[in-house]
Every structure is written in C-alpha cells, then in structure tokens.
C-alpha cells in the first residue's frame, strides 16, 4: 500500500471524527490567477487574530471570539502557508502585495469562542474550534473534468478550441508541430512527446497571459506542483491517426493516452484526496471585473471556468458530477465570491454580486440533495480605495479613488455601469476600463490591527455560522 495514501486516509478519518464532534472545520480556498486567494487567506487570518482582541473587527461575524492562534506546522504533509511573510509584506514601507502562490499550502488556527448554555452545554463552557485552511490553485480545479473524458475526447475538445479565433494564432507553433506528428510512430517517442508537451504548454501560457483566458487544461501544465519535469506530464492533445493502434503500448498516440490516464489517476485523483476529502467548506474566488474588461471571449471563458468549478464541486447538473460527489466528502457550504469589490463604488457592488449569482444560476444543479449550501457575494480582502463623486455632462457619477502602486497621487476611476446579468452584445463595444494595481494600505504592526476589507465578515460568517454554536 502506498504510504502517503495510508497517511492521507488516517488524516481524513481523524478529520471526519473531529468534524462530527463539531471541533473542526476545514476550508478549501481557491481562485484562478489574480483572483486574490493568497491575500484572502492572509486577510482572513489577520482579521480573526485581531477580532479576538478587538470586537470592532469583522463586525458582521457574530460569534464572540475569545482567542485565536495559528498552530505550528507540526508534521503536516502539505507546505505551510507563509503567514508571517505575507504580514511583513503588508507592514513594509511602502506596503507591497504578497506574491501570488502557485501551489498548495495549508495552515491551522485554534479559535476559542463563547458558547451559550444549552442541553448539550449545560455549564456554558467555551468552545474550541480547529480551523484548517487549504489554499490551492484554481487551475487544478479545472482538471477534475478530465476524470470523465477519455484522452481522445479531451483531445478533440481541446483541439477544436485551439483552432478558433485568436487562440489559433497563439497556438500556431504547437498546431504546426502537430500537423507533422505521426501518432503511429514508434521512433523517438520521448523526444517527440516532450517537444509537443513544451509547445502545448507554451500555447497555454500565451492563452493565459496574452488573451486573458482562465479555462486551461491540464492545470498542472501552467501551475505545477513543484514535482519537477516528470515524464508523466509529457503529453498533449492529439487526434488518433487513421487506423491507430489504440491498444498498443509503443506508439506515440498510445503513449500520450497512457500518460493522460496516469495524470488523471495519480495527480487529479490525488488532488481530490488532498482537498475534497479533507475539507467540508469551499471558497471559490472569481475576478469578474478583469473578465468584463477583457471582452466577450474572455468573459465567456471565465463563465466556463465557473461552470466547471461548480461541476467539480458536485454542484452542477451533470449526472456524472453527482456520481463524483458520492465518492468524496460533501461540502457543507460553498461560497463563490467576486473579488476586487473595492474597484467599483458601493452603488455598483450589488450588480457585481448579482452578475456572479446569475452566472452560477445558469449551471448549478436544481435538485441538490446532499445538504450543500451555496452563496455568492462581492468582497475585497483588502480595501484600498474609497468612494467619491465627480461631476460630468450628465450629472454626478460615483467613482473610486485609489493610489496606484507606482504613484504617490490618488487616481479616480469611473467603472461604467456594471451589468447584473450576462451582458448584451452591445456592451462589448464600450471602452474597456484599464485598472491600475492599487497600493494596499499599510498594515499596523501591532497585534490589534485588522485589515480593512469589504464583506470578509459576511464571508466567514456564512462559512462558519453553523459550526460556532
């Protein structure tokens, strides 16, 4: 038996017992690139630490917190979340944004809280909650879809996409290579497969960095897990050649198919054990503002990534995803949050929230029977703007004012009208808003200072309100 699997199984059993006894909650936090998951986790930890000393922090989080401390890493089998490093970044002069994480990490908090007298707590003893937080790349969540696609199905689906519009331009080198590759070849398989893998990976990076796309598979190709350049990863989408020997073990096409299956069996399934089987709460962060300003193709791609996340979490309408949900621990609560809410004035945040709600509503299962509860909201993990008004030809309009990270002067931005549902075709003819990177506020080095935010209290209250009783 694989030692790591046994270790993970024991960890999962211990966690399950603690969950059942109400002593533990584990939150999985994810988000696609630049959605702000690292900052979300850092702000959550800092504000919980501050809340135990200052009840004015996180005012919408209802439990009375007595004390919070971050636990030592101990013998944890996942890399630790670099909490102190991220705090130092925000305490610097000038403050700087923490560097985005590109792999999985974990931390654990002990939270002591007031419990009311009840039949199960006649003496009114304080409660102690162990709160585990796992932070992982949203790109890995995209991969769960691969578990119900054969290599041939995935290849046809992926190549069809690569051959359309602007994507075909950034994928030119890979498509050119593919046109000369022979799937029935038995010569230089490792050399050819590695070259094809690199070219396909380059195309994925260009789709992300140049086109702003986020639904990219396999996720480990652009967000590796630090395991190095393993031969298991040397595959790429390829249609089967005519009269392909699909059962053979020594052709290029068969080798690619075998590696794809191994990727699904070992890496994707292993990811599910590390996250889904440990966690009973999930937070998915989405950057819809960037998608809206990227144009219709980028927005539609972001919607597809959100739909795939719903499916992967067992919340979609597909029968296959419901079977997957039966095989892994069910999430008690799932929060979808659209980030950077401070980039629009308060008058527009409800529309931003409604937009995410409507995107989710198009794909979520209508008959969830596993007790999962889903909510969407707009939030900013770190508030770095303030609202203002400016006078224009048509009257006063609401704007936000923030200091760009490379400037000492505040900048006023009018975001236009945020749609509360999928935009109509004429929306895409408007001029896109180019947001700067706003400088974060400097974090107080003292223990009492929380981080200013928007709706972080609502988020943590939704996730934990049934647990901290």
UniProtKB/TrEMBL annotation:
It comes from the Bacteria. InterPro entries: YcjX-like (IPR007413). This is YcjX family protein.
């Amino acid at each position: 038996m694989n030692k790591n699997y046994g270790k993970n199984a024991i960890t999962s059993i211990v966690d399950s017992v603690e969950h059942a006894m109400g002593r533990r909650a584990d939150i999985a936090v994810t988000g696609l690139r630049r959605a702000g998951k690292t900052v979300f986790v850092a702000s959550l930890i800092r504000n919980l630490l501050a809340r135990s000393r200052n009840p004015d922090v996180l005012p919408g989080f209802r439990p009375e917190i007595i004390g919070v401390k971050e636990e030592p890493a101990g013998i944890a089998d996942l890399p630790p979340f670099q909490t102190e490093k991220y705090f130092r970044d925000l305490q610097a002069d000038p403050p700087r944004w923490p560097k985005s994480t590109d792999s999985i990490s974990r931390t654990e908090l002990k939270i002591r809280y007031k419990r009311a007298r009840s039949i199960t707590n006649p003496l009114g003893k304080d409660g102690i909650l162990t709160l585990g937080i796992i932070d992982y790349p949203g790109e890995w969540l995209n991969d769960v879809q691969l578990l119900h696609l054969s290599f041939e199905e995935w290849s046809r689906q992926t190549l069809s996409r690569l051959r359309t519009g602007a994507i075909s331009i950034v994928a030119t080198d890979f498509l050119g290579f593919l046109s000369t590759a022979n799937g029935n070849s038995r010569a230089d398989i490792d050399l050819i497969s590695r070259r094809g893998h690199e070219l396909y990976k380059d195309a994925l990076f260009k789709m992300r960095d140049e086109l702003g796309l986020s639904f990219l598979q396999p996720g480990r190709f652009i967000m590796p897990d630090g395991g190095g350049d393993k031969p298991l990863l040397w595959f790429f989408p390829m249609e089967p050649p005519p009269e392909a020997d699909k059962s053979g073990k020594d052709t290029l096409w068969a080798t690619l198919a075998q590696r794809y299956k191994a990727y699904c069996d070992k890496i994707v399934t292993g990811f599910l054990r590390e996250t889904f089987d440990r966690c009973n709460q999930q937070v998915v962060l989405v950057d819809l503002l960037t998608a809206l300003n990227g144009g219709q193709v980028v927005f539609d791609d972001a919607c597809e990534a959100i739909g795939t996340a719903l499916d992967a979490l067992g919340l979609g309408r597909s029968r296959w995803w419901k079977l997957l949900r039966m095989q892994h621990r069910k999430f008690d609560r799932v929060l979808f949050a659209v980030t950077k809410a401070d980039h629009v004035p308060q008058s527009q945040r409800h529309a931003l929230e409604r937009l995410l709600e409507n995107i989710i509503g198009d794909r979520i299962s209508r008959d969830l029977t596993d007790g999962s509860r889903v909510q969407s909201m707009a939030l900013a993990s770190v508030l770095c703007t303030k609202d203002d008004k400016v006078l224009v030809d048509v009257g006063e309009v609401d704007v936000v004012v923030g200091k760009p990270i490379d400037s000492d002067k505040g900048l006023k931005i009018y975001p236009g009208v945020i749609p509360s549902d999928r935009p109509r075709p004429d929306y895409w003819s408007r001029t896109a808003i180019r947001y700067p990177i706003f400088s974060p506020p400097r974090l107080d080095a003292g223990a009492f200072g929380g981080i200013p935010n928007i709706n972080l209290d609502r988020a943590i209250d939704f996730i934990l309100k049934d647990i901290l009783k």
